[in-house]
Design goal:
The chain is an alpha+beta fold. The chain folds into four domains: 75 residues, Rossmann fold (3-Layer(aba) Sandwich), CATH 3.40.50; 64 residues, ATP-grasp fold, A domain (Dna Ligase, domain 1, 2-Layer Sandwich); 128 residues, D-amino Acid Aminotransferase, Chain A, domain 1; 74 residues, Phosphoribosylglycinamide synthetase, C-terminal domain (Glycinamide Ribonucleotide Synthetase, Chain A, domain 4). Helix content is 27%, strand content 29%. The protein contains twelve helices and 22 strands. The strands form five sheets. An eight-stranded antiparallel sheet has the order 16-15-10-11-14-17-22-19, sandwiched between helices. Strands 3-2-1-4-5 form a five-stranded parallel sheet, with helices on both faces. β20 and β21 form a beta hairpin. The longest helix is centred in the middle third of the chain and has 21 residues. 47% of the residues are buried.
Length: 414
């Protein structure tokens, strides 16, 4: 089988790493990929938003399965285009991926089908500036469109709200409409399922750390680290999430003529008042997937094919025991402006069983350079969170580049 993975970040490196383990895969490509995965896949220099270029490559190379990592090509309709040509591709359609590409669509869907979520209203950006003078704080401000995980601002007073709106304004068209949402206090959890549009199978949980600094302080990022499984998850809570969140969401989307296939991510807040959905993503979370896939024992290719073919009810998922911890190493200045091209030292060291996933790197000769805001994801799997955490941070200390920063408290509260 020939497989093409679309994307270039840490999520795609983790997917390539897992897919390469499947005995059914004889040739593996990644477009455009990154230097860290070059030993596992042939890198193809086609950008993720060049849908026709990706389609032409898939046809010319007789690709048997295309796996879409990031949200942008999904929102552009890559799945619809490939299916029009009779090609197998894993991911939701353009209409179904609105569950991520439009937070307004997602909020209205949840309210329509009784999925627990915070109360909210939709206003224009200009109206939001006027509204912040008279709101009861704290509140949450969200942009409607895609914002690479940085389109959410928690404002505790008018000054923070104004600063947040100024930051949101820089996101352009994605922020023309704003959701003003009730702030919910609690612990966040990431919940994943794979679905064929009718059946849904849980695919693990994680606790992401969005804030850039220790103690969950500072601006939100795309994610600075992960613990998996989520320390708060129990069998009873998982069953509640499936019955109150996943099942009504999938039934509702099917009823509305946009059946959802692929990986569905539910970002949850767990509080004394119960469980609520903060957001949905139409794909694996990053860095969550970097912590989840190393614990997955089942052949991921088999699961994806079962999703595409509508037979997920015949599949069982097997997980390794223990816990995993992923620590993100970021460029100086991230999540704001950051410097590229810094030399990364230490990647030629011995990391044992610890995995080093490349998220934003480039290669110049034999040297690796920083290329993105999130540069590397260091993942360790152990019997306990404490052991995994110790192993991950031991590996972190072997790596350095100018401006490198990371959170030192990933998993510390577990």
């Amino acid at each position: 089988m020939k497989v093409l993975v679309v994307g270039s970040g840490g999520r795609e490196h983790a997917l390539v790493w897992k897919i390469a383990q499947s005995p059914s895969v004889k040739k593996l490509y990644c477009a455009p990929g990154n230097p860290g995965m070059a030993s596992l896949a042939t890198l193809v220099p086609i950008p993720v938003d060049n849908i026709e270029g990706l389609l032409q490559f898939a046809e010319s190379e007789a690709i048997d399965l295309t796996v879409v990592g990031p949200e942008i090509p999904l929102s552009m309709g890559i799945v619809d285009r490939f299916e029009e040509k009779g090609l197998r591709i894993f991911g939701p359609s353009k209409s179904a991926s609105q569950i991520e590409s439009s937070k307004i669509f997602s909020k209205r869907l949840m309210l329509k089908y009784g999925v627990p979520t915070a109360s909210a209203e939709v206003v224009t950006r200009g109206e939001a500036y006027r509204r912040i003078r008279s709101m009861d704080y704290p509140v949450v401000l969200k942009v409607d469109g895609l914002a690479a995980g940085k389109g959410v601002v928690i404002a505790r007073d008018e000054q923070e709200a104004a600063a947040g709106l100024n930051l949101i304004k820089e996101m352009g068209d994605a922020s023309s409409d704003i959701i003003i949402e009730q702030f919910l206090e609690g612990v966040e959890a990431s919940f994943f399922v794979v679905t064929d549009g009718v059946h849904a199978v849980p695919m693990g949980t994680a606790q992401d750390h969005k804030a850039v600094n220790n103690g969950n302080t500072g601006p939100n990022t795309g994610g600075m680290g992960v613990v998996s499984p989520s320390p708060q998850m129990t069998p009873a809570l998982e069953a509640e999430i499936m019955s109150k969140v996943i099942e009504p969401t999938l039934r509702g989307m099917a009823k509305d003529g946009m059946p959802y296939k692929g990986v569905l991510y539910a970002g949850l807040i767990l509080s004394d008042q119960g469980m609520s959905v903060l957001e949905f993503n139409a794909r694996w979370g990053d860095p969550e997937v970097q912590a989840l896939l190393p614990r997955l024992k089942t052949d991921w290719v088999d699961v994806m094919l079962a999703s595409i073919e509508g037979r997920l009810n015949q599949v069982s998922i097997d997980w390794a025991g223990g816990s995993s911890v992923c620590v993100v190493l970021a460029s100086g200045g991230y999540p704001g402006a950051y410097q590229k091209g810094e030399k990364i030292s230490g990647l030629d060291g011995d990391f044992g069983d610890t995995l080093v996933f490349h998220a934003g790197t480039a290669q110049q000769g034999a040297e690796y350079l920083t290329q993105g805001g999130r540069v590397l994801g260091i993942t360790a799997v152990g019997e306990t969170v404490s052991l995994s955490r110790q192993q991950a941070y031991s590996a972190v200390k072997k790596i350095s580049f100018p401006g490198m920063h990371y959170r030192s408290d990933i998993g510390a509260e577990s």
